[in-house]
Amino acid sequence: MVRAKPLMFLVFASFLALGTGLFVRNWVTSERGALVVAPAPPAVQPAVRVLVARDALPAGHILKPQDLGWQAWPDLPSNAPYVMNGTKQPEAFAGAVVRLPMLAGEPVTADRLIEPGDRGFLAAVLPSNMRAASVAVTATSGVSGFVLPGDRVDVVLTHVFAPQGSKTEGTPGTAAPDHRAAETVLRDLRVLAVDQKLESKAGEAFVAHTATLEVTEKQSEALALAAEMGKLSLSLRSLASDDAAVDGAPDARSATLDSQVSAFLPPLVRTHADEGVRVSVLHAGKADDMTLKRGK
């Protein structure tokens, strides 16, 4: 009996050691498995961002950077004619004109826009029923190069004329000599281009040879006729100009004679022929003089 107890203790110790060894082996194996780095999942290709219109843009609209923005565009084919992020910025399209109407969120493509300098750009800028007419300008008549695209101007005509039926004051019967006059023939016209420049840089001023103005059909006729009558000059308008507050009528004509500028030139005096026909009327043996107005 005495010998059986050590034997039993030896068997129990063997089983305990075996169990401990198995436990340690399993624990080490599990820890090693945890240390193995799991393979990274396949990278998901991000959607390509393309340049789109933020809002609906009508034909003829001049683009500003805030009109365009980036939008994710999944499943984009490699040959798509869109502007993708990293190629151009919205600022690169500032000043371009929308050739065809664009919907909100529609990608920007070359066939939808006309860049400044492209053929047909000026026609795309013009509103419906408007025309573009050019006038010759010089450093003086063009306000020393400070008339730029986008400004608004008046057109002043300076010409020589021979007044009919007028005389020089103090010399009865003597015909008046030729006089000069300056008059504003067209008002508040938008400058579309100066020479062939359709846009201007900040602080830029240059002496141009022509100015292209936005006019109606009737104004284009008046401008062409005025160019044949005398010298044309441009008068730059203030951004806060309000003719109605000055003379009560935006379309009121303004003119100045040379005699109003110089005190050495005699003023024009109307003759009786211009005032009317002077006649004598006999009534009850009396003669009364009276003047009949023209057209009466």
How does this model look, in words?
The chain has 296 residues and is of the alpha+beta class. Among the domains are: 76 residues, Type Iii Antifreeze Protein Isoform Hplc 12, CATH 3.90.1210.10; 123 residues, no CATH class. Helices cover 21% and strands 28% of the residues. The protein has 6 helices and 14 strands. The strands form 5 sheets. Strands 5, 6, 8, 9, 10 and 11 form a 6-stranded antiparallel sheet that branches. It has a two-stranded antiparallel ribbon with strand order 1-2. It is rod-shaped. The termini are far apart. The relative contact order is 0.11.
Number of strands: 14
Q: Helical residue percent? A: 10-25%
Find the structural class using helix and strand composition. alpha+beta
Q: What is the overall shape?
A: rod-shaped
From the N-terminal CA to the C-terminal CA, the straight-line distance is 164 Å
Task: Provide the gyration radius in Å.
Answer: 44 Å
Can you give the mean pLDDT? 76
Low-confidence stretches: 244-250
Approximately how much beta-strand content do the residues carry? 25-35%
Topology diagram in text:
Elements: H1 4-35, E1 48-53, E2 68-73, E3 97-98, E4 113-114, H2 121-125, E5 131-136, E6 152-161, E7 166-168, E8 179-194, E9 210-215, H3 217-229, E10 231-236, H4 244-247, E11 254-257, H5 258-261, E12 268-270, H6 272-275, E13 277-283, E14 286-292
